[in-house]
Write the structure tokens for this entry.
Amino acid sequence: MESQAVVLYPFPGMGHLVSMVEFAKLIQIHNPSLSVILFITPAPFDTGSTENYINTISATTPSIKFHRLPTIPFPPDFSTDFIDLAFGIPELYNPIVHNTLVTISQKSSIKAVILDFFSNAAFRVSKGLNFPTYYFYTSGASGLCEFLYLTTIHNTTSKNIGELNIYFDIPGVPPIHASDMPPVMFDRETNMYKNFIDTSSNMARSSGLIANSFVGFEERAVDALRNGKCTTDGPTPPVYLIGPLIANGNQVDSSENECLKWLNLQLCRSVVFLCFGSMGVFKKEQLKEIAIGLMRSKQRFLWVVRDPPPDNIENKSIGAKELGLDDILPEGFLARTADKGLVVKNWAPQPAILGHDSVGGFVSHCGWNSTLEAVVAGVPMVAWPLYAEQKMNRVFLVEEMKVAMAVKMSADGYVTAEAVEEKVRELMEGEEGGGVREGVLEMSRRAKAALEDGGSSRLDFFKLTKSWTQV
């Protein structure tokens, strides 16, 4: 019998790669006869953590094959903007992707090519080769409603979104103010805007859309998607919600890790955890406000801190040595809060921390992986969006799912010590925090049920893969 393969083409950033790899694991568990191949292109940023992650997965799950596409030179006028690079690199790699898919197809029957939305350029390659082509949307159904509806907004709006003071009425989600839309959509003359519109159009013409969420978390959004309300110029492809797909937190030894050892000494649900993702950095002035707010809140806390951005280009180019916590935080803060909190630099085992009994709240940037990890663990959130689609996620989490509270922030994203104090205390002790806690515990139960045999996510997964395993 001819061998069968599924090709996954993720964006190499951790926020996108992890859920795609978890999806690959799921395919291997339930369909071990399928070969799973992940294309890896050079990332437009430092890949230290990504490289370590890929090496770990290769060692622990050798059935998942990472195919590293060869390094090629970039044109001299190639944009250095992050989003332009994210879309532009796959465009450069289309000839190599074409040849690689042809080579694979000579040995195996390719049952599906699954693209990250940043890999959109490969859509015309895989469709041109007549392979069933899907999009794996690493966020949830609510975000997918917005993504598919972008073409409608584009066709019915002539002004730049960034110039508008209106709410968009997108099917399946609460009204979204123009200022809460992803900033990449603000200026319709940019390449990044055009790439998102092109991706939205291609998604609507794909073989199916896969989202990292579960029906019970986003019922209204799922209804809008499956009833074709988000694509106004044609039918919507089948939509599969197969999540939550998150990294396992059980691989960290609680007797060895500093954070988990400290949490073992704290009371149940007594600690608020602050962590803002792999790209979440704050200026020193903002770190000071967070520190003062935490101190005044009198809550126990575990806070992951990164170095602030350099003050100027010269400092950045020099590559100044990494700062110590005493250099970043207010003088005396660590000593004054030693009995209440723990501050760690750069990284902490987030899934394991959120799953710890001592953690009762999470101040988060609203990244989707972090959101799902908190929901599965039943931890209520304070929503503090920083970039990308995170302001939009805040709307969903606060107004629709009711698993988070929004921190008060200025138009440029600044949050005062008073706002930090107020929301942290409310989250841990207040009536509103209690309501959010009840909501997230219910969503946690639904998340676990969705992944069980007969659950909505398992049923969607089997519907998706059924055609791939038929001879």
Q: What stands out?
A: The radius of gyration is 22 Å. The mean pLDDT is 94.
